[in-house]
Specification:
Chain A: It comes from Haplochromis burtoni. Chain A: One of its GO terms (cellular component) is blood microparticle. Chain A: Keywords: Heme, Iron, Metal-binding, Oxygen transport, Transport. Chain A: GO terms for molecular function: haptoglobin binding; heme binding; metal ion binding; organic acid binding; oxygen binding; oxygen carrier activity; peroxidase activity. The complex is a heterodimer of chains A (about 140) and B (about 150). Chain A is about 70% helix and about 0% strand. Chain A has about 140 residues and is mostly helical. Chain A has one domain (about 5-140): Globins (Globin-like). Chain A has helices spanning about 5-20, 20-35, 55-75, 80, 85-95, 100-115, 120-140. Chain B has about 150 residues and is an all-alpha fold. Chain B has one domain (about 5-145): Globins (Globin-like), CATH 1.10.490.10. Chain B has nine helices and no strands. Chain B has helices spanning about 5-15, 20-35, 50-55, 60-70, 75, 80-85, 85-95, 100-120, 125-145. In chain B, helix 2 crosses helix 8. Chain B is globular, with a radius of gyration of 15 Å. Classes of the chains: A mainly alpha (about 140), B mainly alpha (about 150). The interface of A and B includes residues 31, 105 and 109 of A.
């Protein structure tokens, strides 16, 4: 399900709106993921506080969201531009790729919450495809 | 059997008592048909599903969205026996409607996103976790009679 020209335009336009709230959405999404999908906490056993209000969670959520925003600007070559991050996730972090889908769901939920009028079904469709392609690019180096 | 705390029961009950079925039902089904277009395979008799605009204004889609959402009422009333409560509906979806059970998860994700959009910050991480647990149990029950 590769990204059409229309998908790329929709994602870029929506991201321009989302950008000011990027850090907040990222932190919120990560916090929700850790709460609603407790199995994901296994990747963060080295943190002292895994609650949604945790500074560690908010900071890391913001980091992830910033990287996603960067990927939006490089949407024409996700595999190439995410090569280094793919290596990180494959060889060092070894996050099971099934979790990318779980985080994507929570990111989408937060986008819908923060921008209810803008996050129409059509925007949702393109963003869902984008995050799916992102996850694929991120798991490129796994095997 | 699934265990529900008093807190979880109250969260689930609150969500449904404040739910505008006529708004949320259609929105959830529309979103599912648009975001996951292969789900349209079950609705060839619904007429024009040609694009997002057509889907979102299709009266058959709206009516069906409301019907499906009310289908959750029986789980709400039988929290301690959801599996048995949905046995008949599970058989229906398997043998008459021939719905791939993977689709139940897609619709339940869309429903969660629509409700989150409506409730905003009131849809806290805890509420989200509880509601998703509730939907997961219903989805599992609906898939139980497939063979």
């Amino acid at each position: 399900m590769s990204l059409s020209g229309k998908d790329k335009t929709v994602v870029k336009n929506f991201w321009a709106k989302v950008a000011p709230k990027s850090a907040e959405i990222g932190g919120e999404a990560l916090g929700r993921m850790l709460t609603a999908y407790p199995q994901t906490k296994t990747y963060f056993a080295h943190w002292s506080d895994l609650s949604p209000s945790s500074a560690q969670v908010k900071k890391h959520g913001a980091t992830i969201m910033a990287a996603i925003g960067d990927a939006v600007s490089k949407i024409d070559d996700l595999t190439g531009s995410l090569s280094a991050l793919s290596e990180l996730h494959a060889f060092k972090l070894r996050v099971d790729p099934a979790n990318f889908r779980i985080l994507a769901h929570n990111l989408i939920l937060c986008m819908g919450m923060f921008f209810p009028a803008d996050f129409t079904p059509e925007v949702h469709l393109s963003v869902d495809k984008f995050l799916q392609n992102l996850a694929l690019a991120l798991s490129e180096k796994y095997r | 059997m699934v265990e529900w705390s008093e807190n979880e029961r109250s969260i689930i009950s609150n969500i449904f008592s404040n739910l505008d079925y006529n708004d949320v039902g259609p929105k959830a089904l529309v979103r599912c048909l648009v975001v996951y277009p292969w789900t349209q395979r079950y609705f060839s008799s619904f007429g024009n599903l040609y694009n997002a605009e057509a889907i979102s204004t299709n009266p058959k889609v709206a009516a069906h969205g409301i019907k499906v959402l009310h289908g959750l009422d029986r789980a709400l009333k039988n929290l301690d026996n959801i599996k048995a409560t949905y046995a008949e509906l599970s058989v229906l979806h398997s043998e008459k409607l021939h719905v791939d059970p993977d689709n139940f998860k897609l619709l339940s994700d869309c429903l969660t996103i629509v409700i989150a959009g409506k409730l905003g910050s009131a849809f806290t991480p805890e509420v989200q976790a509880t509601f998703q647990k509730f939907l997961a149990v219903v989805v599992s029950a609906l898939g139980k009679q497939y063979h």
